[in-house]
């Protein structure tokens, strides 16, 4: 059985019922549902969820409009579920705090795979942030990737930019950490998605692009002219490591 709590938000009862049946068959037992953005917000005020599946088109406030308010209540991954398929819609979803974007009609098992991947990353990031790696924090050796302008503490789950701690959503941190672990190597968008999200890319190049943008907003002095994470045209992205910097064990 799976102890993760999931909130399904969709005004189409048939979709909620289908997802609940599939998730229960896959071992998820703590599943709540809501049929509107208002119900979802109310639910998040009284319960801490590990993941939210959020429909975009609903009566009243849309999922896109509700996402920023949900982000004030929870840092749980948000998977948008929608019939809208344009790149602009996907980018908008990521911009307001979404972590993944699934279009209707969908394969329920694909949704389950993405949910498992998001939960795995989210749980790991929470443990890092809490210092729960199975040992006492005092005795734990920490790995810090030093890039001069910024440092990434792998065990503490911290991003430090010019001496200041910068908040970093779980998947943004996981992507940055992966790049820090593999400096000066070029990765395609599909490779990054599969390494960090843990499932096949499913044509989700935009997911990686938006998360790269989120990283640049945090670590680059000028995100429009990046010096650390660069785009190698036609190949992908790489993180450039300054010659005098590297990995430090603490």
UniProtKB/TrEMBL annotation:
<feature type="modified residue" description="4-aspartylphosphate">
    <location>
        <position position="55"/>
    </location>
</feature>
<keyword id="KW-0805">Transcription regulation</keyword>
<keyword id="KW-0597">Phosphoprotein</keyword>
<dbReference type="InterPro" id="IPR001789">
    <property type="entry name" value="Sig_transdc_resp-reg_receiver"/>
</dbReference>
<dbReference type="InterPro" id="IPR039420">
    <property type="entry name" value="WalR-like"/>
</dbReference>
<dbReference type="InterPro" id="IPR036388">
    <property type="entry name" value="WH-like_DNA-bd_sf"/>
</dbReference>
<dbReference type="GO" id="GO:0005829">
    <property type="term" value="C:cytosol"/>
</dbReference>
<protein>
    <submittedName>
        <fullName>DNA-binding response regulator</fullName>
    </submittedName>
</protein>
<dbReference type="GO" id="GO:0000156">
    <property type="term" value="F:phosphorelay response regulator activity"/>
</dbReference>
<keyword id="KW-0902">Two-component regulatory system</keyword>
<dbReference type="GO" id="GO:0032993">
    <property type="term" value="C:protein-DNA complex"/>
</dbReference>
<keyword id="KW-0238">DNA-binding</keyword>
<feature type="domain" description="Response regulatory">
    <location>
        <begin position="5"/>
        <end position="119"/>
    </location>
</feature>
<dbReference type="Pfam" id="PF00486">
    <property type="entry name" value="Trans_reg_C"/>
</dbReference>
<dbReference type="Pfam" id="PF00072">
    <property type="entry name" value="Response_reg"/>
</dbReference>
<dbReference type="InterPro" id="IPR016032">
    <property type="entry name" value="Sig_transdc_resp-reg_C-effctor"/>
</dbReference>
<dbReference type="GO" id="GO:0006355">
    <property type="term" value="P:regulation of DNA-templated transcription"/>
</dbReference>
<keyword id="KW-0804">Transcription</keyword>
<dbReference type="InterPro" id="IPR011006">
    <property type="entry name" value="CheY-like_superfamily"/>
</dbReference>
<feature type="domain" description="OmpR/PhoB-type">
    <location>
        <begin position="142"/>
        <end position="241"/>
    </location>
</feature>
<dbReference type="InterPro" id="IPR001867">
    <property type="entry name" value="OmpR/PhoB-type_DNA-bd"/>
</dbReference>
<feature type="DNA-binding region" description="OmpR/PhoB-type">
    <location>
        <begin position="142"/>
        <end position="241"/>
    </location>
</feature>
<dbReference type="GO" id="GO:0000976">
    <property type="term" value="F:transcription cis-regulatory region binding"/>
</dbReference>
